[in-house]
Write a structure and sequence with these properties.
heterodimer; A: 443 residues; Rossmann fold; 3 domains; B: 680 residues; five-stranded parallel beta sheet; three-stranded antiparallel beta sheet; 61% helix; 6% strand; DNA replication origin binding (chain B); ORC_WH_C (chain B)
Chain lengths: 443, 680
């Protein structure tokens, strides 16, 4: 264990608790503590902490502020659909409901600052107040003045307040064109393998020994570390695979790690394909483990269900849309006219068409082209009924087609086909239509 | 207003027919019949969806109970939001009813906090948030209306907090649950929440997941996961296409916050098969469809929408027009009908005269015939089912995979004369004993439920046959001689001898006596054939079938499968069809010069190519219109474009543009482009 955090101004006991709760993050915590200084001292106006997902940013901040009982407001920027919500939450946690209710319906930054000053003059900060903004990258999409103002909020409100921004991306991506106050940058590096093991070993199953659990974690990391370093994801996997291991363990003694390893490894590798991708939910996975070995094949992941049943004409509409998206319009004559004459592909090609259309992705096409192709591929005569047109719009709602033109444009709307080659092949097989024969790329 | 509506419906129904009393009775009968059909289908659909709804309810209960468990595994999982992915198929119109009953069931047995949201009302995150909050808080206000204060308080609170966030919901939830747990249980009128009344889950149903904007959904899930510790949230995703859409919409960082379980509902074709089975192939409802009408409905279903609800609506439309006093069914009173029928032609002249003159005789006969028809239906359905059980496991399904296909064949013609029936019979004649016995057993099960006399007789016979099959011992070995000969064959090497023995063997096989099993099989099949011939004749061969069968397929097509473009073209090319003005009546293909301007302009534009010169068009139009004004063709004014004509022409052209026949083009300034092709 590393040394206990120490800093004047805080109780030893509390710092001790903080240390216990922050394994593998002592250097960062120590740095933060020294930046924050003693509670009554003014702190740096704004800090910017960045690091990958699940590298302990929020956790460190939360534990520090909570255990040291510092006044703080934690706001997640995802939640703040409007700035009003942000202001409200900050005022609510610093000054209570009265202050928050003073905000007008659509508050400006100046309203916030005004109310803040008003209240902070009544009860000035005895300790530094902290505002923690999670997912701060979303602040870039809000009003242009918000981020610069938050960075120097201390000056604006003339109070001992520090804004801490937590983000997954680096500060360079934030800096506005007009320039702003530079916050202190602090990087949280990824956990190493050893650190991961140390952290994961902490939430051991109460009825098993710590050594046993940590050897289990060791095995698990051996399999998954190469594909996943996300602590959250690993923790999820740990909890799932543990129950699996308990089933297998009946024959093996707790101490015999080698045998355990041999038994569990193939199962973990299998889990990598389903559980890691969340193809199978954790509940289902547990049920699966309780079932017999041979039944395991019956459980299919989410992506295994790709088959979509469609009405007959919808299938043809989708096929027509696919053809219209991936064939150049000039080639329609060749595919859908009876006496098209011989057109050699080599002469026919334009220079830019030499690349495969499938590599370039679907192209937009107008409605009348779609219908013209539809009428020539469908084998029976179809009346142009209202339900044909409504099928097109329902294909759009099902996201099999996407509408390219604006919703307001009523005449000649344009669409794109949004399904994959495999999908359309499966569909055309059900209606005995050889789509490959009609695709320009496969001529 | 509902009453008035019903009254007006009745007026419409009885409008234009002689006996008012009669028609009122008819109206009531019609409504009763329809109500019965509707109730039955609802019950049916409830049953169909019972299984999946029950499993969903179990899922919600399980989730809310595991959340409170403190064992290690569930604690590790506590941060996930339990999510049910409900795959319902592409028949989106049918989903409403499913979600309706789902949320009702949830509210009755699991939790009062259910909110269902649709994509079209949640374009942005704040809208989604608002809907969820409104519905969850609102429904609760509706559910226990015990104290008025509470209602006002919550509504006031909701109005006051302009920015609705999940934390508001959290506070509200904790206050709500705290209150209900402290409240005396005896005072509560109804406590539908069985398990854990303190912390029922908050269920949010996304009715159409595909239509939601991925961004909104992702943000919403992220926010919800922040509150999962304080608020027991649960999602239900309604998916129309395939579960892999979840992965398309949500990145891994978001979907890892969910614990998704898949629920697959039964396919809509199965659903339709059950509806047809219970609604159409039954003698309970006198209302029947003939083959063409059936065909129209089924093809709308298969080709266009996959929607069972629309199918039932189609039946409703027909039942209305079938029961109306102006329909064929009423024509029973016109005696001609009975006489015209082919099956009655053989009747003697005296009888026919009697029918024409004697009302009492007619009534007796009618009664007899209708009774006969009822019996026919009673026997038709079980025999149809029997034939289907026998033929449905034959290779390549000569008589169709589904019961409805067989039903079509039987409605159209004498099934026993069809090619398919013969192939089916041939295949049945070579079926193995086990298969045959199994399907016969199923036939017995079917017939056992029927109460008609003839069917009971058939059942007895079938049982006897089945018993004989059971008694059959292993067939005495007729193969012995053949095998011995084969053995002989192996010894000889002479080509001539070989040929001879082979021929002999062939002949002996042909002349071979039937084994007892084979003869019994033939006997059984003859019995089945007899049943088919007596009971599966098409309805048209029975007198008075018009009473029960609705046959106007064109009406149905027109009502259910609208063709807006054809109607517009019809209106433009023959305005008489809609305007009913004698002066507009013309020979085929031409338009009277007295027709509305747009019709004339339309007719003239049909003669042009892809680009239309506006000036030429105007001149042609002016000529036609001048002729209509009966100007002297020799006068100098004839065909001259004056201001009024010019204005009328411009109006007609812009109307055509509005209807989508032409549009302006940039290729030539004084031209318009045609958007349709073909014409004269």
């Amino acid at each position: 264990m590393t040394a206990v955090l120490q800093h004047p101004g805080y109780e030893e006991e509390r710092l001790q608790r903080v240390t216990e709760q922050l394994p593998c993050r002592e250097p960062q915590a120590r740095m933060l503590l020294s930046l924050m200084g003693q509670p009554r001292q003014y702190s740096y106006p704004s800090m910017f902490i960045y690091g990958h997902r699940a590298s302990g940013k929020s956790h460190v901040m939360y534990v520090l502020l909570k255990e040291l009982e510092l006044p703080h407001a934690t706001v997640s920027c995802v939640e703040c659909v409007s700035v009003a919500l942000l202001f409200e939450q900050v005022l609510l946690s610093f000054f209570g409901r009265d202050a928050a209710s003073l905000l007008p319906r659509c508050p400006y930054l100046s309203d916030f600052v005004r109310i803040y000053r008003q209240h902070s003059s009544q009860c000035p900060a005895k300790q530094t107040r902290y505002i923690v903004m999670e997912k701060a990258e979303l602040l870039r999409d809000t009003d242009a003045n918000l981020l610069p103002a938050l960075l120097r909020l201390q000056e604006l409100v003339e109070d001992n307040v520090t804004v801490i921004l937590l983000s997954e991306i680096v500060w360079d991506q934030f800096r506005p064109n007009t320039g702003c106050f530079e916050p202190l940058l602090l990087h949280f590096p990824d956990y190493s393998k050893g650190e991961l093991q140390q952290i994961l070993s902490q939430d051991r199953h109460p009825s098993y020994s710590a050594e046993f659990y940590s050897s289990y974690i060791n095995i698990l990391l051996g399999v998954f570390y190469s594909v996943c370093r996300d602590l959250r994801e690993l923790r999820h996997l740990c909890s799932l695979a543990f129950s699996l291991m308990l089933c297998l363990m009946s024959s093996v003694k707790e101490t015999d790690t080698h045998k355990l390893w041999r038994n569990i490894e193939p199962h973990l590798k299998k889990a990598m394909q389903t559980v890691y991708l969340r193809e199978v939910s954790s509940l289902q996975w547990e049920q699966l483990q309780q079932m017999e070995e041979n039944e395991c094949g019956a459980m299919r992941g989410l992506s295994a269900h790709t088959h979509v049943e469609l009405p007959y004409y919808s299938k043809f509409l989708l096929i027509a849309a696919y053809l219209a998206s991936y064939n150049p319009a000039r080639t329609d004559k060749r595919f859908f006219l009876k006496h098209h004459g011989k057109i050699r592909k080599t002469n026919f090609l334009k220079k830019n068409e030499k690349t495969s259309n499938h590599l370039l992705g679907p192209k937009p096409f107008p409605l009348d082209r779609l219908l013209a192709i539809f009428y020539s591929v469908v084998d029976s005569r179809v009346a142009p009924t209202a339900s044909i047109f409504s099928q097109i719009s329902s294909l759009v709602t099902l996201q099999l087609l996407t509408r390219v033109s604006h919703d307001d444009q009523l005449d000649a709307p344009k669409y794109k086909c949004a399904v994959s080659m495999d999908f359309i092949c499966a569909i055309s097989r059900t209606v005995n239509f050889e789509i490959v024969k009609y695709l320009y790329d496969f001529l | 207003s509902k009453k008035r509506k019903a009254a007006s419906l009745e007026d419409h129904f009885t409008h234009g027919c002689e006996g008012a009393d009669n028609s009122q009775i008819r109206f009531k009968l019609c409504q009763a019949l329809w109500d019965k059909i509707k109730a039955d289908t609802e019950v049916l659909q409830d049953e169909l969806y019972r299984k999946i709804l029950d499993s969903l309810l179990d899922f919600t209960r399980k989730c809310s109970s595991t959340r409170r468990h403190s064992d290690w595994a569930s604690q590790m999982r506590a941060s996930e939001i339990p999510t049910a992915a409900l795959v319902l198929g592409v028949n989106v119109p049918d989903h409403d009813m499913t979600f309706q009953s789902l949320s009702e069931l949830l509210q009755q047995s699991v939790t009062p906090f259910v909110a269902s949201v649709q994509a079209k009302e949640c374009a942005a995150l704040k809208h989604l948030m608002k809907r969820v909050l409104e519905r969850i808080m609102g429904t609760v206000v509706d559910v226990d209306d015990e104290d008025e204060e509470d209602v006002e308080q919550t509504s006031a609170q909701l109005h006051k907090s302009v920015h609705c966030s999940l934390s508001t919901l959290c506070d509200w939830y904790s206050s709500k649950t705290k209150k209900s747990s402290t409240g005396t249980p005896g005072k509560r009128r109804s406590s539908p929440v069985k398990d854990d009344p303190q912390h029922p889950p908050v269920v949010i149903i996304f009715k159409d997941l595909e239509a939601f904007s991925p961004k909104v959904l992702q943000d919403f899930i992220l926010i919800c996961s922040r509150y999962i510790g304080r608020l027991p949230l649960m999602f239900i995703f309604g998916i129309a296409t395939s579960p892999s859409t979840i992965q398309h919409m949500l990145p891994h960082s978001v979907s890892s916050l969910l614990c998704i379980e898949l629920f697959q509902s039964l396919s809509c074709t199965q659903h339709l098969a059950t509806v047809i089975d219970k609604l159409i192939l039954t003698h309970q409802f006198p209302f029947k469809l003939n083959s063409k009408v059936m065909q129209v409905l089924i093809s709308i279903f298969l080709f266009h929408d996959f929607s069972v609800r629309n199918f039932i609506k189609g039946i409703q439309v027909q039942s209305g027009s079938y029961m109306s006093p102006r329909s064929v069914c009423c024509a029973v009173r016109r005696r001609r009908l009975c006489i015209c029928h082919p099956s009655r032609e053989k009747q003697e002249a005296q009888d026919q005269v009697n029918l024409l003159t004697n009302d009492a005789h007619l009534k007796v006969l009618c009664q007899k015939l209708v009774k006969h028809l009822c019996k026919y239906h009673k026997n038709y359905n079980p025999v149809l089912r029997c034939l289907h059980t026998l033929s449905s496991n034959l290779p390549r399904y000569p008589l169709g995979k589904q019961l409805r296909e067989l039903h079509f064949i039987c409605l159209e013609k004498n099934v026993w004369e069809s090619e398919e029936y013969h192939t089916a019979m041939k295949l049945l004649k070579v079926q193995s004993k086990d298969e045959l016995i199994a399907s016969l057993q199923r036939c017995v099960d079917i017939l056992q439920l029927v109460k008609s006399k003839k069917m009971k007789k058939a059942l007895v016979q079938l049982k006897e046959l089945l018993a004989k099959f059971m008694q059959l011992d292993a067939p005495p070995s007729t193969e012995d001689c053949v095998t011995s000969r084969v053995r002989n064959l192996q010894k000889k090497t002479d080509l001539f001898q070989l040929q001879k023995t082979l021929l002999e063997m062939n002949e002996s096989r042909r002349a071979k006596k039937l084994s007892p099993f084979e003869s019994l099989r033939n006997e059984t099949l003859e019995f089945i054939d007899g049943l088919v011939k007596t009971h599966l004749s098409p309805p048209e061969s029975h007198p008075l079938y018009e009473v029960c069968y609705y046959s106007s397929s064109t009406t149905v097509r027109r009502h259910l499968n609208a063709t807006p473009r054809t109607s517009i073209q019809a209106a433009l090319s023959c305005p008489y069809y809609y305007l009913q003005n004698e002066s507009l009546k013309t020979e085929d293909g031409t338009v009277s010069n007295a027709a509305p301007d747009i019709c004339i302009a339309y007719k003239l534009h049909l003669e042009c190519g892809r680009l239309i010169n506006l000036y030429d068009w105007l001149e042609a139009y002016a000529t036609v219109v001048s002729a209509a004004e009966a100007n002297n063709p020799d006068s100098t004014d004839f065909g001259k474009v004056e201001e009024v004509k010019h204005a009328r022409f411009i109006q007609a052209v812009s109307e055509l543009e509005f209807l989508g026949f032409i549009k302006s083009t940039k290729q030539k300034t004084d031209h318009v482009a045609r958007l349709t092709w073909g014409g004269c």
